[in-house]
Amino acid sequence: MHFWNFPGERDDKTSGEKTVGIHHINIVVTDLEESGKLFQLFGFTVVNEKTIQGNWLDKLTGLQGVEADFLSLAHKDSPITMELLQYKNPIGSSDPRGKRGLTPFPI
Fold it and tell me: Regarding beta strands 81-89 and 17-28, do their DSSP bridges make them parallel or antiparallel, or are they unpaired?
């Protein structure tokens, strides 16, 4: 998830930022096409579809040579975008325990 923050607004529990909303939610899937179809059944529409890779993604995941297929979906009744990722390299497993990189957030 990506949170919107306003710098400078603080309370005793934050380091200077206040969360005000969610911009998007990333979900790692094993079948991008079928997962995209499922979200479309709930009224989501495809906004963007591409393959992502590069140093920024390697740094974000803590892995080398990361490549993933990416699908962004939006719903007319929500400002939150759903982003689905299917990793092509490295190929993940259905059991993420003990793996480096980002931890899936099951829904």
Answer: parallel
